């Protein structure tokens, strides 16, 4: 609820979050004082690397597709003003992680995409 209240105060329609620590995957509604948000999240069994995307209603009703790639990467595809967009929430591996971890994170395939996330210095 604190995040939804901050999003309302700052008039933010879409917000990508990382390192959220929620297990499993899901969708739920979160209400602030005046606004309603839909929360999409992605995680796995361990308590790290999870990503979320908050979307303000009624824009959340325009989400056409959700793709949960892994615990570090997910995207939603909303229709905004007659255009379809893809919005990624990404959490890149830290600098000290192995090359295998960096390559299996899925981020290397997003070279020409718009990403909201904690890229940990990887650009």
Automatic annotation (TrEMBL):
Which SUPFAM superfamilies does its entry note? DNase I-like (SSF56219)
MF terms per GO, please? double-stranded DNA 3'-5' DNA exonuclease activity
Q: Which InterPro entries match?
A: Endo/exonu/phosph_ase_sf, ExoIII-like
Give one GO biological process term: DNA repair
- UniProt signal peptide: none
Fetch the PANTHER family from UniProt.
EXODEOXYRIBONUCLEASE III
List the protein's name: Endonuclease/exonuclease/phosphatase domain-containing protein
What is the organism of origin for this protein?
Answer: Helobdella robusta
Q: What is the lineage of its organism?
A: Eukaryota, Metazoa, Spiralia, Lophotrochozoa, Annelida
Instruction: Identify the gene encoding this protein.
Output: 20197200
